């Protein structure tokens, strides 16, 4: 009888625990579903297509990123791009390439005044002299494309809440929407809908949870130039053996694209 009573008590306790576990599981599922719904709602309520993106600095990285955004599909890309007059040759070339979509500002102050999202593409010493003198609005988002300044240095220069400032490292291919963009902090990337919307037009965003992760990943990009050179050697070798140079190039490109896709 005592054994029977003990078994019954254990079964009842187990049933309660199972019920509690099920309730917790259902609760977590509901929370997850709610979070996904909120993210979707945020994306719909705050579309990138209604925003103007401005660039302070107009070097190689800015040029590539601006091209990638400008080539994005209507309805997903920003409403308009505005670039600073710095590096006149590059800014003029962008304007000529996208005459109705890209405008050239008179100065950096105009970029800040007219933009909802501001992308920074300056050399470190130039950034330290220019950015603190600008007054950013409290509703603006900042996307740094500068590798050298630390997160804290960046906060000090733009003086905006942390969740509105994202540090990125755009890599080759962003001009055609096929690149990779390192992004830090990962939490900030998903804190505002416009951040992932913006980076998705450039390619694949790789979020980092720690700033220290950026340096070794950036170091890996040193392999890019030797890799391109090696691919060129493969195509050149085939051409020297009588293959049409364009056929050789397409073959090498397609072969290694397939290998990378399956890696």
UniProtKB/TrEMBL annotation:
GO molecular function, one term: pyrroline-5-carboxylate reductase activity
Pfam families per record: F420_oxidored
Protein name (record): Pyrroline-5-carboxylate reductase catalytic N-terminal domain-containing protein
Coiled coil: none
Chain ranges of the Pyrroline-5-carboxylate reductase catalytic N-terminal domain: 52-147
InterPro entries: NAD(P)-bd_dom_sf (IPR036291), P5C_Rdtase_cat_N (IPR028939)
Similarity remark: Belongs to the pyrroline-5-carboxylate reductase family.
GO BP terms, alphabetized: L-proline biosynthetic process
Source taxon at top rank: Eukaryota
